[in-house]
Input
Amino acid sequence: MKANSVKNVVLVHGGFVDGSGWQKVYNLLKKDGFNVAIVQNPTTSLADDVAATKQVLSQQNGPAILVGHSYGGAVISEAGNDPKVERLVYITAFAPDAGESVQSLIANPPPGAPVPPILPPQNGFLFLDRAKFAESFAADVSPEDASFMADSQVPWSVDALAGAVTVPAWKTKPSWYLIATDDKMIPPPAQRQMAQRAGATVADVAGSHAVYVSQPQAVVDLIKRAAEGGE
Output
């Protein structure tokens, strides 16, 4: 690693899943000499998830790269204001501006865009239709792994969905963005628009919303570019 490179990486998962999906990314980063920590978001509210992320950040010895997938992008946009965070990496993630939430960003999908198979709330929590999970979330993941992800869903609170970012960290810290061009949860044009608005360095990869599971090397390659501050 270069002398000015950041060696601490904190990984933040999104809605419906937990931190175990990062395992392949974790293994590759560790092999490359990074210190890696994984946040287990309760996904009960944005504030709770930001608090969980800051707790992990507090344990880092030195500056860190904060990586968020999907809803995790909203979490890192808020938690990224922590002084330990030097750089941000968005993996097919939401990058809300001040006052925006995931709920507001998905409120008016473009005509013809795939509609994520989110079931009506149950006691204030959301799930994806298990029968449609693989197709919408993990189309390029092995059927066994996609089935496990569908059957081990973490309840995602509507409060988390509606949690609005106050001061987006991407306005003051450099960011990188991986666009998954086959994503059926967040339309790729929406990803590109958020990445450009954030002034992020962009990489494209042909992959599903679960690109962090199906193509961990592409995710690691972008994190390594961020670690070295490279374009």
Residues 8-227 form a domain with the Rossmann fold fold (CATH 3.40.50.1820).
